[in-house]
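User: Can you help me understand a structure? I only have the sequence.
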Amino acid sequence: MALAAASTSTVPPESTQQAIGYPSLFLLVLIGALVPVVPTGALVSSAAVVAFHQTAPFSLLLVFVTASLAAFLGDATLYWLGQRGMRSRNGSRWLEAIRARAPEERLAQSREKLAEHGVAVLVLSRLAPAGRLPVMLACLVAEWPLRRFSRGNLPACLAWALTYQVIGILGGSLFPEPWEGVVAAVGLTVVISVVPSVVRRVSR
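Assistant: Let's start by predicting it. Here is the structure, written out as tokens:
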């Protein structure tokens, strides 16, 4: 009995988890949009698992709003920094970081699709692993203004946040313990991000 009481006392209440969790999720997704190293999809799925097991109302909605807003602001900031690099004679480290993750072959494909389908490509690029930066660079090369890019990027970020949140909800519904759902959701997001690159390498 004492052990059970001690174990429950070490678990922070939901209000504390939310006060820490949502700002942390926002900050990490924002950083992940600027520096494409943080696995933001796994973060959103993990947050959705935790929210699924909470009793507080609107927890899943808050995860969705937080993740999509952070992704949108991060993309807009990175695009603005890329624009400054395009206008500068010496470029910028942000523009070089985008170019480093957008090989010529992927950039050519993105420019072609962008010319054919317009802003719809932004939605697909957000959902496709490693597809965001080549399309963003294609928009920069095409000299899209920030307002036009943002109009197309808003539904892209909403679709992205919803997709990874659904993955988290599925993981949370399959397992009784939140940590089990988190492990399942993270594993699934890793598979989703790794498989396309493996297929491309094998095809080459």
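Now, to help you interpret it: Residues 1-11 have pLDDT under 50 and may be disordered. The first helix runs from residue 2 to 10. Let me know which part you'd like to focus on.
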